[in-house]
Specification:
Elements lengths: L3 H23 L21 H21 L2 H9 L2 H11 L5 H7 L7 H8 L14 H4 L11 H6 L3 H7 L4 H15 L3 H4 L10 E5 L5 H9 L4 E6 L4 H11 L1 H5 L3 E5 L17 E6 L7 H9 L10 E5 L13 H8 L4 H7 L16 H7 L1
Parallel strand pairs: 1-2, 1-4, 2-3, 4-5
The chain binds S-adenosylmethionine.
Length: about 375
């Protein structure tokens, strides 16, 4: 009899062999738990089969856990998961860090007592508590009259808090850039940018350091770019671009605009041969509905009819039931580029569209 568990395990085996095959094809090493160096598939743009297979494996493991684990045990683990982030905070702030001490001992390992002595941490106090008021915030409407979960807890809105803590600006920018590298390698290929033409002026609204825009600028030498964010972030954005792509900065293709998107965009009319294309990525979910609408309205003065707006965001979605099997899906995407896969609109098998593995609708909706 085919049980739910059998189906998941069989999809898991298929995904594992697709991943191994893709690694072999690319001539890159297998994953090893005893090798802390970054794997070649981490970051950057991976081959599509490896990308999908990795996500599938993670998503399927989550589904198997959800299926077989005692719900009470699971809920206790989920409830206490804040310990992970507070522990990471504790163990990375020591000098040397916990990771540095552990790695320096090689395969011998180190006793907790010695680890505590070497890092100055109390052996029994590696965790600190964090708190969330999400439950309370979940009951209120999405509008600017009601506080966000962050403000309910900290009595200040997130970006006002960042502004009031200039020492947090660098870590915040780094966190956004890292999150982008982890979550978004497929974005650059998913965006329908090939239709935009060889000459546009891309305006990245609430750009942060603008990692995705940087990838787009590298691929489109005729494009110009305006990176728009809060004035306090501009020095960090400039430094990021000067370090990674000095030639783009020196050529004048990128400009940095410190401006609040709650005011009308102060942009001159776009050059006739290089129209504005507005991109707003991972921003709208941060704001209640009325303020999200205001951000978009404020682009209108600089957007004549026909201007393109690209909203790049994880959105909650209920996937349509799909008849595609896991084997068939991997067979159809084999050796194709991400752009070809998107173009072919191959439906994701139901088993692969679920779970954090895809960092998709369901996973990100919960996270945000
Ligand atoms: C979640 S981050 C997204 C950054 C970037 N688009 C990305 O995808 O990595 C949201 C961005 O909105 C910016 N932001 C917040 N309030 C703003 C405001 N009033 N005007 C302009 N940008 C703002 C923040 O500084 C931050 O860089």
């Amino acid at each position: 009899m085919e049980t739910e568990l059998n189906r998941l395990v069989s999809a898991l085996c298929t995904s594992a062999s697709v991943l191994q095959g893709a690694l072999n094809d690319e001539n890159v090493p297998s994953f090893r738990s005893d090798d802390p160096s970054p794997h070649p598939c981490d970051g950057g743009i991976p081959p599509p089969s490896a990308w999908y297979a990795r996500k599938a494996l993670v998503g399927l493991c989550h589904q198997i856990i959800a299926l077989v684990q005692d719900p009470l045990e699971r809920s206790i683990i989920d409830f206490t998961s804040f310990n992970v982030s507070s522990s990471i905070n504790a163990v990375t702030r020591t000098r040397p860090t916990v990771a540095e001490v552990v790695l320096s001992t090689g395969s011998k390992g180190i006793a907790m007592k010695n680890l505590a002595e070497n890092t100055g941490l109390n052996e029994t106090k590696l965790c600190t508590a964090a708190a969330s008021m999400l439950g309370e915030a979940a009951k209120t409407p999405s509008d600017s009259q009601h506080s966000s979960p962050f403000a309910l807890y900290h009595h200040i809105e997130l970006y006002d808090w960042v502004k009031a803590h200039p020492e947090q600006i660098r870590p915040f920018g780094r966190a956004m850039d890292t999150a982008e590298k982890i979550l978004d390698p497929g974005f650059v290929l998913d965006l329908p940018v090939q239709d935009l033409g060889p000459k546009v002026t891309l305006v990245d609204v609430g750009s942060g350091v603008g990692g995705l825009s940087m990838q787009l600028m590298k691929r489109n030498p005729g494009w110009k770019l305006v990176l728009q964010d809060q004035q306090v972030l501009i020095p960090q954005m400039e430094a990021f671009w000067k370090k990674d792509v000095p030639e783009i900065v020196e050529s004048g293709r990128v400009t940095f605009l410190g401006h609040s998107f709650f005011e009308p965009a102060p942009l001159p009319p776009a050059p006739e041969d290089s129209p504005y294309v507005f991109m707003i990525k991972s921003v709208l979910h941060n704001w209640p509905d009325d303020l999200a609408a205001k951000i978009l309205e404020n682009l209108l003065p600089a957007a004549p009819p026909g201007t393109v707006l690209m909203i790049v965001n994880y959105t909650p979605a209920e996937p349509e039931p799909s008849k595609t099997t896991v084997e068939e899906f991997f067979r159809r995407i084999d050796k194709h580029s991400m752009a070809e896969i998107q173009e072919a609109k191959i439906p994701l098998p139901d088993l692969l569209g679920v779970g954090w593995g895809f960092g998709d609708a369901s996973g990100m909706h919960i996270a945000l």
